[in-house]
Specification:
Number of strands: 11
Number of domains: 1
Strand order of the largest sheet: 1-2-3-4-5-6-7
Radius of gyration: 16 Å
CATH superfamily: Ribonuclease Z/Hydroxyacylglutathione hydrolase-like
CATH class: Alpha Beta
CATH topology: Metallo-beta-lactamase, Chain A
Strand content: 25-35%
Structural class: alpha/beta
Helix content: 10-25%
CATH architecture: 4-Layer Sandwich
Order of helices and strands: EHEEEHEHEHEEEEEH
């Protein structure tokens, strides 16, 4: 089930998807709210006006794709937040600290190559998990996430071989959800997704 529009995430949180399915709500930009099997998570939530404020009055002001459907103070009951890379509309310093404050049990999953950026963005250090391409996390008895490389125009790794841009493949026995951040295709991506 996909829900969109200004009340999307609020409606999603009031709705329990049938067993074996998931619900999605678009948050604008590359962001989504997801709910399945009693768990809630966000991917790349950009719920503030951080970039609009940062670039106000410049030659290239930031224009949102749509107004954020909820504010970061309004989202509660989160289990996880996933950030595909450090750009401010994916790892938003105007959103993440407020999500952490209002969701004290929530864990934040970010590229290991961007752990310092995650701390600067205001995510509490003890609640951040850094991951790299090729790794997997078990989120619950029924949900696993596989981490793959993403290309934001090109693949980029640090001196430790850790990718700066990641995609997440969420799996259960019933469904698979892939979120690529805002990446572009690269050689080997299709084969990676078919595994």
């Amino acid at each position: 089930m996909a829900i969109d529009g200004s009340a999307g995430v609020r409606r999603l949180w009031q709705y329990e998807p049938p067993r074996g399915s998931l619900g999605l709500a678009w948050l604008g930009q590359a962001g989504f709210a997801v709910q399945s099997a009693g768990h809630r998570w966000l991917i790349d939530p950009y719920l503030s006006d951080f970039l609009a404020e940062k670039y106000r009055g410049t030659e290239f002001p930031h224009v949102r794709m749509m107004q954020a459907p909820v504010g970061p103070n309004d989202v509660q009951g989160l289990d996880w937040v996933f950030c595909t890379h450090r750009h401010s509309d994916h790892m938003d310093p105007g959103t993440l600290p407020l999500l952490a404050r209002h969701n004290p049990e929530c864990r934040f999953v970010v590229p290991r190559a961007e752990m310092e950026a995650a701390h600067r963005a205001g995510i509490p250090a003890d609640r951040v998990t850094g991951v790299n391409a090729g790794e997997s996390l078990r989120l619950s008895e029924s949900i696993t996430v596989h981490v793959i490389a993403a290309a934001h125009e090109s693949l980029k790794v640090n001196e430790h071989g850790e990718h700066h841009f990641l995609g997440f493949i969420f799996n259960t026995r019933a469904w698979t959800l892939y979120h690529s951040g805002d990446c572009v295709p690269y050689d080997g991506l299709v084969e990676e997704l078919l595994q």
